[in-house]
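Morning!

As promised:
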Amino acid sequence: MEKMNKLKVLRTKDADFEEEFKKILFRREEVSAEIEKLVKDILRDVKKRGDQALFEYTEKFDQTKLDSVSAVVSGEEIEKAYDKVSKQEIDALRLAAARIEKFHQKKINQITIKGEKGEYLAEIVSPLNKVGLYVPGGKAAYPSSVLMSAIPARVAGVKEIVMVSPTVSPHVLAAAKIAGVSHIYRIGGAQAIAALTYGTESIEGVDKIVGPGNIYVETAKRLVYGEVGLDMVAGPSEVVVIADNSGVPSFAAADLLAQAEHDEDARPILITLTEYFLQEAYKEIISQLGDLARKGIAERSIEKQGAIILACDINEATELANRIAPEHLVLMVDKPDKALKKINCAGAVFLGNYTPVTVGDYMAGPSHILPTAGTARFFSPLGVEDFVKRMSVISFSKESLKDIENEVRRLALLEGFDAHAKAVEKRTKF
Amino acid sequence: MEKMNKLKVLRTKDADFEEEFKKILFRREEVSAEIEKLVKDILRDVKKRGDQALFEYTEKFDQTKLDSVSAVVSGEEIEKAYDKVSKQEIDALRLAAARIEKFHQKKINQITIKGEKGEYLAEIVSPLNKVGLYVPGGKAAYPSSVLMSAIPARVAGVKEIVMVSPTVSPHVLAAAKIAGVSHIYRIGGAQAIAALTYGTESIEGVDKIVGPGNIYVETAKRLVYGEVGLDMVAGPSEVVVIADNSGVPSFAAADLLAQAEHDEDARPILITLTEYFLQEAYKEIISQLGDLARKGIAERSIEKQGAIILACDINEATELANRIAPEHLVLMVDKPDKALKKINCAGAVFLGNYTPVTVGDYMAGPSHILPTAGTARFFSPLGVEDFVKRMSVISFSKESLKDIENEVRRLALLEGFDAHAKAVEKRTKF
């Protein structure tokens, strides 16, 4: 490994490559015992004392005094906020909303299998009743994230979409109105996760909580797993750009910097197939960095987390990308459709020179809430699937039951469950 | 509420009904701090020391001395086990396997949306690479559960299905062979979850772990959430039987007792629409109880967790069932298809007089690994969906990017991300 002025550079041919690459394979770190204890206490306290505890923690952590009335964002306040947002911005939000809605209008297959003699099996898919949308406060309160989580829920048919956020900007409220959010509460942090999980006097509990938050929120979500449904666990934003010489170095650099400006833990990684592209992209990164409004953040991300990897060929490059399982993957290569076939683990894939990650962040249609930190190995982008549940249906007639009676009883008895076998016999001998 | 000799009886018309019903609404209890600490230490230790720690814990908790060779169940051992199982039992397992496979051969929709000017969006569904199947040891090592978890994984296309179990009976091994399990290891407990999550020298880490276990296993699973994929959180088995006078009291009683024989925390609940059925079913429960091989366990379950509820009509009955969100729901009513339409939350529903839960446990087709403890509000039966992941694909041309350029840039700037906006500009101005 060498270190150019700003970025780590790895070449797959180097002897220490595997060792250095493993350092790039970011996996989640353990949460400190203190944070976990603090969060656990908050969860337990809100579960026990409801509103009172919720409002105490809100005052303590968010410096906001709330009661059961002021915790609710009123319809009037939402309308006022909406009117404050410029027409151009509303139009942009509406265009994004329409595209997100269109992409998520998929049909989820239901099953009906009719057997002989009146037997049938089915699987029924139905929307969740109530979901909670966590929207981070402060600068991380993004109207785009409201659209990207609430619209798939609405399309899935969820009746009640409850949004919580410690600070609500006019843009966030306008997005919530456009997306069809049912209720909005001015709460955040671990205490908001507790309220959504257990319910309080003011806030009804939900069936599932989605949306990313800070370390306290993510820890709280992990702790309530199984008491309430959850989406994926969120981490810092990541991008891997694979580029051959058909790619444009300035485009690759721009995508890496767009990730880098998120926060200093964001991870921008470029995999190139030629030394030429490596050098050109590096120069572009340094040069474009100078022009950025969030230069400081982007620079720290590039220096701390960034890397350029020189791979031998597209097979090696895609193999490395699969091992990273990145949130965003840009295939800036000659035949992106062909390269896509080699990709097995990624949140969202962006093809060719003219698909910046930005277009997926705001407008393309698929949700930008994507698995991070290598979890694309098993988590999927947020989608309508996250807002439905399946239910199995089994129906036998006396005749069809008799047909399989012996085998069912045999397996039940083999496992030592004689009452299970008798529940069949009672019927067939009736 | 009254208490008949053995069971709690609730009538919805009673003044204290709501209060008593809430006690029935079982929700998960908090795991003790000691168990959590113990499990956390095991996870950390196996992550750090690999095989050495894994084998030490196996010796300590399972009284089994293992090394990297003896931890693996060999192909030869599997064949021998298979040959030991009677032909009739193999036939029964094979029939179950064939039915489970047929039910799970569903198509999961993939999306492709072609836009104008070369734009397109897609969603690709692909199988997980490696999954781990947890199979409890001792008496809870059920061959049926091996079929019910491994077959959906195989149908989904998972390449490597790794099974772990602290004790492997010939029946379990025969089921694993029939189901197409790739590797079997003789390990269990929290240390097995650690090994599957982090990998050790002998055991490769997997992408997702499914299958129920004891409190240590379930705690370990909860703690690794997000480092590895997980299925639902498992709890004691439950059944709700809704019966009107078209139902047969002895069938209802038999289904309740079949749940009750699982373990003393199992929850058998009957909702009847008439006093007549209530009394008849009660008599049947008491009378059938006497004949059971596992009478002691079933009796304790009935006494501790059982209940009969008298509801006014089918609407009230189904509403109560939805609030319980049971793992198994039997609709032993006049028009079960009509009643089914009112059911919103349940794992699996069994229609009419001739569909005992037993048939779903062993043979019907849908997996018997189902959400418990009210989690059917948001979890689904184990299915092929649990063994695939989705990946979004976005592809724009220069022209299609130009069409939405202004809106994308506006939203990026509104959120303060100027590098995001520049990544678009670089391309449209190129």
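The first strand of chain A starts at residue 2 and ends at 3.

Hope this helps with the figure draft.
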